[in-house]
Design a protein that fits this description.
- This protein folds into 2 domains: 26-108 and 223-261, D-Maltodextrin-Binding Protein, domain 2; 111-213, D-Maltodextrin-Binding Protein, domain 2.
- Helix 2 links the parallel strand 1 and strand 2.
- It is α/β, with parallel strands linked by helices and 264 residues long.
- It has helices at residues 5-21, 33-50, 69-74, 86-94, 127-136, 146-155, 161-170, 179-184, 195-198, 235-245, 248-256, and strands spanning 26-31, 53-58, 81-85, 104-109, 111-116, 140-143, 171-174, 190-194, 208-213, 222-228, 260-261.
- A 6-stranded mixed sheet has the order 2-1-3-10-4-11.
- The longest helix has 18 residues, at 33-50.
């Protein structure tokens, strides 16, 4: 039987397309909340430029939540790229989940305070004013990840015992959800999280307002870093993604989320 010229062209074109597609990889990426919104906006650009596909998952840098990144890796989940607070990433490298020497600092992130949209914004421009806001608040929300751990272990206990008891009695750790979302739902009159995690809930159509970064000496800047999964089958593409995220092309998107790109 003779093969028609048209059928031959279709077959050759299909073979060529299949050959091209074999060069496109699918990356599994997981990011903690501090960098999730930035990554969510950067991925489509990376995909368009490279032809690769990126599946993005979320989880906290630490904590007891089943979705926390360390807990997911402990259960045997695998990711090509992992993004979370740098100290926690180093722990994952020590446990053998992240390839040695693959860690790269991405951004500096500050803790912010949020209130319900339209509510008066308390003055937190100094340590003394910030302390009064904590004492006068009715219900305080804080995250279960890096920012909340700092508040729970370092900030709240720094108050005198009587005041610490007052603050601790009305402060609630939010596990497996965004603090800003709970503020929008009316559960807290003030809340704390990485500024980059509050930002997506602000703006014209948002439901919370960002008051600003908390003041020194209570502020703590967290470095978020990326590492490559030790057993990743797409190491080359994973490196491409990390390089793209650190490039000048990504700077504006990152800064719009309230983060400072690490230039190195």
């Amino acid at each position: 039987m003779k093969t028609s010229p048209i059928l031959m062209i279709i077959c050759l074109a299909g073979a060529g397309l299949g050959s091209t597609l074999t060069h496109a990889d699918t990356l599994e990426v997981i990011s903690s909340g501090g960098f999730y919104s930035s990554m969510e906006k950067l991925i489509p650009i990376f995909e368009k430029q490279t032809g690769h596909t990126v599946h993005l998952s979320s989880g906290s840098s630490m904590g007891a939540s089943p979705t926390a990144i360390p807990n997911r890796l402990d259960r045997g989940e695998h990711f090509d790229v992992v993004v979370l607070a740098a100290p926690e990433l180093n722990k994952l490298a020590e446990k053998g989940y992240v390839a040695p020497d693959s860690q790269r600092a991405l951004v500096n992130s500050s803790i912010g305070m949020a209130v319900p949209k339209g509510a008066p914004k308390p003055d937190i421009s100094s340590a003394e004013k910030f302390e009064k806001v904590l004492l006068n608040a009715k219900h305080i929300g804080y995250s279960a990840s890096a920012s909340g751990t700092h508040l729970e272990k370092d900030v709240f206990p720094s108050f005198p015992p009587v005041e610490y008891k007052v603050i601790a009695g009305k402060a609630e750790k939010v596990v497996g959800d965004r603090v800003a979302k709970r503020i929008a739902e009316g559960q807290f009159d003030i809340g704390f999280q990485q500024i980059s995690e509050i930002k997506p809930f602000t703006g014209q159509y948002g439901q919370v307002d960002l008051v600003g970064p908390i003041p020194a000496p209570y502020q703590k800047v967290t470095v978020f870093a990326a590492g490559i999964g030790k057993n990743s089958e797409h190491e080359k593409v994973a490196k491409e993604l990390i390089k793209f995220v650190k490039s000048p092309q990504a700077t504006q998107i990152i800064e719009q989320q309230g983060l400072e790109q690490v230039k190195q």
